[in-house]
Amino acid sequence: MRTARTRPDAGTTAPGVRARPARNDPRQYDDLAAEWWRPDGAFAMLHWLAEARAALVPPAARPGAVLVDLGCGAGLLAPRVADRGYRHVGVDLVRSALDQAAAHGVVPVRGDVGAVPLADGCADVVAAGEVLEHVPDWRRVVAEAARLLRPGGTLVLDTLNATALSRLLAVRVAELFPGVPRGIHDPRLFVDAGELVGECARYGIALRIRGIRPEAWGTARWLLRRAVRRSGPAGDGRTGAPAPPRIVPTWSAAVLYQGWGTRQFRPDRGADTMPTTSTTRDRASLPAAEAGNLPGDS
Questions:
Q1: Cα distance between residue 101 and residue 254, in whole Å
Q2: Are 35 and 41 in contact (CB under 8 A)?
Q3: Most CB within 10 Å of its CB: which of 28, 210, 241, 283?
Q4: For the residues of 23-65, what is the DSSP string, one character each?
């Protein structure tokens, strides 16, 4: 799903000592492939965040409008924007996730979100949900998002802030809860909100940010109902899936935050130029199922 950065010594141990999995290892997403669409599974919070992200996506303003979903995973955003009028194109590295996204109406493109094999200006909306904190160079992903956006196009994103509080809550505390995948985040990759705003401004995107969090009582109820549901005979789930909590705005962006903004202009060629990137695979080399009728071909 993501382009991971791992420590040089990750996964190496002395003889006889069990190796610890590297943080932010993309192989985890294959191991957890069955969890994507479980409403109370390992990726439950990604469902809640997708709902909140979808609320920032405007209705399509023209026929044939395209939404490019960077780090789309299994396409959790798809049912939440299906009525907005977009052709939904998802970019991800993990084949098992893309297969599920395609089953939910997403046009799958296997590629690196830091070098997207799609045409300049092909997107009316670029969504980058819970992906920037999983890549080795988030600035490159921002540059790609700007390259993909048409003038007037909208960028929507959510990510984790590079603060001590975020590292504590999103890693140390979160991983104490049952069902939360261990090592899914590398706190060294978290994204400073101020730096992100500045980087977007380089490409003509006036990014607005706000802190968000799961509603407290709703989360407590959800955790309790999930525990009760799983405590049944063989975890048979006869109590029904717990109702998901809402993601709500909060006064602080110190942990989790959303960003949204419109690409206002194409910067002049110079220091802050629109990027020219080399893709991991040239579009001409894409398999027919991935390359055919991609946005920007007309």
A1: 31
A2: yes
A3: 28
A4: TT-THHHHHTGGGTT-TTSTTHHHHHHHHHHHTTPPPPSSTT-
- Give the span between the Cα atoms of 262 and 254, in whole angstroms: 23
DSSP alpha helices (H): ranges in the chain? 27-31, 44-54, 78-81, 95-103, 138-148, 164-167, 193-202, 216-230, 288-291
Q: How far apart are CA 25 and CA 121, in angstroms?
A: 31
Residue found under tokens 């924007």: 81
pLDDT tens for 105-118 read 999 999 999 999 99
| pTM (predicted TM-score) | 0.83
pLDDT, averaged per 10 consecutive residues of the chain (298 residues), comes to 43 47 84 93 94 98 98 98 98 97 98 98 98 97 98 98 96 83 92 98 97 94 83 56 89 98 70 43 37 47
Reference 147, options 72, 84, 202; nearest CA is 202
The overall average pLDDT reported for the chain is 84
